[in-house]
Amino acid sequence: MTTKVENLYLEAENDIRNSNFQEAFEKYETILYEEPGYAPAHNSIGWIYKTQFEDYKSAERHFITAIKSDPLYPHPYFHLASVYQDQERIEELHLHLEKCLKIVILDKAWVYVRYGIVEENKGNYTEAIKLYKKAILLTMSNDKIRDYQSDIDRCRIKIDVLKEDQEEVQ
């Protein structure tokens, strides 16, 4: 049986799909008034803060609350990682990803791809390739394997560009 809160949550999610963010936001607030620890509502309201208002502080607070409320609810882990990554808070991202590796329900390939993105952004292309390969080994999705292979190919191109630049200088 679906509860009143669950029904309201589903309505709010439908509002999100229809770009009715204000209506969704109000429904999530109503849910949190009724059930302050309802992780899906914290996650979704955090998503609205991040994507619609670019209010990273409020988004982060809701993602962290969602994780504390239900440590096995996966979505806030992904969104919190994007908050850290968007703000180039690399140390916090690394600590978060280490935690994510210990959460049973989280896709470990996703974690290694995030590590790879960090290394690629730092210009450590060889290390990024190793991490993308680790992600390939951990996924069962052919689509994801193709995506991760594209990440590897992109890093190899960057390595080649750097080699060409060094040869031109000499």
Plain-language structure description:
- The protein has helices at residues 4-17, 21-34, 39-52, 56-69, 75-86, 90-101, 108-121, 125-138, 142-169.
- It has 2 domains: 1-92, Serine Threonine Protein Phosphatase 5, Tetratricopeptide repeat (Alpha Horseshoe), CATH 1.25.40.10; 107-170, Methane Monooxygenase Hydroxylase, Chain G, domain 1, CATH 1.20.58.
- The radius of gyration is 19 Å and the shape is elongated.
- The longest helix has 28 residues, at 142-169.
- The model has no long low-confidence stretch (mean pLDDT 96).
- It is mostly helical and 170 residues long.
- 31% of the residues are buried.
- 80% of the residues lie in helices and 0% in strands.
Q: Summarize the main sheet.
A: none
**What integer value in Å does the Rg equal?**
19 Å
CATH class of the largest domain: Mainly Alpha
CATH architecture of the largest domain: Alpha Horseshoe
Q: What is the CATH topology of the largest domain?
A: Serine Threonine Protein Phosphatase 5, Tetratricopeptide repeat
Mean pLDDT over all positions: 96
Strand content: under 5%
- Helical/strand content category: mainly alpha
Share of residues in helices: over 70%
